[in-house]
Amino acid sequence: MKPYIFLSMCALALASCTGNGNKSADSTKNTTAEDTSNTATLNAPAQNMDYCFLRTEGASNQDTTAIHLTINAGKVSGEMQWLPKEKDARKGALEGTMKGNDIKAVWTFMQEGAKDTMSVAFQLSAQELRQKPFKVTKDGRQETDGAAGYTIIYKLDNCSKFKTAAKPSL
To answer: Residues of the signal sequence (predicted)?
Structure first.
């Protein structure tokens, strides 16, 4: 009989350590909602701020894409530079809007001496930038694949590519 008393006392001690056993389901939901909100706040990008991101890929990570974004009250501006090792680069300006964490912008760039534009779609968090990939159309042009996920990932950078690079003149 003594083991049962001991086990009962242990169970009561554990119950008292976990807090009020009379919590309603609603208060549990509120706590979960607050936790989710806090996580979203921690991952949310700050407004009225500059961000720089970098992605390297290809053989020996020699192809680079660098993105500089300035976010101000839902408006996005900046630069995007696609710098493949042995191909013609694309360098130009980004202009768009941000709703939640989603950025829709137009990239106006120069490539092979010609000016061109392309819509781009990004998703911004506090630590990384994700982009929807491009697809090739029937006429051979690239465009953002609206049906794809945000699968291209850029890491936060110190803007090193933009400190030394001259701004493109468009």
So the answer is: 1-25
* pLDDT of residue 100 exceeding 50: yes
Residue type, position 94, single letter: L
Alpha helices, DSSP H, located in the chain: 2-17, 25-43, 160-164
Range of the domain at 87: 49-160
Number of domains composing the chain = 1
- Pairwise pLDDT comparison (59 vs 29), residue with the higher score: 59
pLDDT in tens, 150-164: 999 999 998 877 765
**Residue 7, in any domain of the structure:** no
Look at the block and give the residue holding tokens 């290809």. 58
The answer to whether the CB of 118 falls within 8 A of the CB of 133 is: no
- Cα–Cα distances in angstroms (integers) from residue 9 to residues 14, 17, 19, 22, in the given order: 9, 12, 16, 19
Q: Which two tokens stand for residue 84?
A: 């493949």
With a CB cutoff of 8 Å and minimum separation 6, the contacts of 159 are 50, 52, 68
List pLDDT tens digits, range 118-153: 999 999 987 899 999 999 999 999 999 999 999 999
